[in-house]
Amino acid sequence: MSAIKISEKLSVSHQPSVEDIQALAGEGFTTLINNRPDREENTQSGTQVESKEANRLGLSYAFIPVTPDTITEADVRAFQKTVLDSKGPVFAHCKTGTRSLSLYLIGEVLDGRMSADEAVEFGRSRGADTCGAKRWLEKHTSRRPQVKGFFDKRTSSVQYVVSDPTSQKCAIIDPVLDFDEKAGATATINADAILGYISDNGLTVEWVLDTHPHADHFSAAHYLKEKTGARTAIGEHVVHVQRLWKDIYNWPELRPDGSQWDRLFAHGDTFKVGSIDAKVLFSPGHTLASISYVIGDAAFVHDTLFMPDSGTARADFPGGDAHALWRSIQEILALPDEARVFTGHDYQPQGRMPRWESTVAEQKKSNPHIAGVTEAEFVALRTARDKTLPMPKLILHALQVNVRGGRLPEPEANGKRYLKLPLDALQGAAWE
Questions:
Q1: Which candidate, 207, 221, 223, places its Cα nearest to that of 169?
Q2: For a tag site, which of 256, 362, 396, 426 has the least CB within 10 Å?
Q3: Per-residue b or e along 89-106, where b marks 16 or more CB atoms closer than 10 Å to that residue's CB
Q4: DSSP 353
Q5: What is the pTM of this model?
Q6: Contact in structure between 353 and 64 (CB atoms under 8 Å)
Q7: Phi first, then psi: what are they for 150, rounded to 5°?
Q8: DSSP strands (E only) in 332-403
């Protein structure tokens, strides 16, 4: 089939048939990128068929589904990385090839190798209308705040640096302290990558913010406070989580007063990131203490809403409640339709590349857990689904660190730190 050669490594095309894909290996291609969401048309192959055929042919395969209205910087960076990591030529496609080309051009402009006008002309010279890429870039550069996501593959968590372009001040949200439960080893790989980004971009950290005490990873808030001097914060209802887990761990030394953070936010509290106004929404349901941060036009909702193709977060942890989660989600959806929604996890359905940014409008339209669903239906769906989920493998490890603001246990007489794991403390054991 005819493909447009974009660079020495990248070619883009309209939707290929299965027969077209079978010919790619013979033409020297080593990687296939599918930028087309499934079920756009009945005639398209779909990611399951394409990935199976690519694997059979020995081609690397990446699923980065986008529409013109839903492209995010995460999609652009995933596209760039796939091309960069490929051992040979890359074949990327959508319906017509324009979305694949736009992802390439946006990356070129973001990295300073091309201007927006040059991107439009580049597309025109190859028979494609890439004015949409220019519109995306104009909208992206005018946004406040700027948001950089960091995906942790080990825990499927997304960490954020939220910055004010005017003052160069920023906040870090939900940073991960690395932990390997098999070796009992800790590391600061994720946190140091965040610090590297902050240094490279000349940012000053004002806040290290947690949305709740996490059950699937350790918080790096304390480590980053020591490195930056920034204030730490979490929601005021963390004291209820501390009391709950103080009993579970039989932990008389734990102070359940939230004093492990510099500030405890209440619902409706306001603060600033540089010159950008921010407010706090109490968002319980996943945990007793979950909050969302709305910073400018960006809402950081962590374990409430996932990406529209992934539904919503579980509500069966100690202190969780599906009815409360529904009400929290409705408050988030009451934000303006154009508000950006940043989630705290992405589990990559159908093996697609990680994504973490949507909008309120996209969530209301496309998230199957909430679109056209009543509260009773949501609670029934959430309850049934949660019964099938095992407890997170790190919940007993992580909570004793996270209810202390990311502080590891104090060293004992031999200089070693020890975690305490209560037996038979939680329901939901997976025996099969």
A1: 207
A2: 426
A3: bbbbbbbebbbbbbbbbb
A4: P
A5: 0.90
A6: yes
A7: -125, 115
A8: 340-343, 357-359
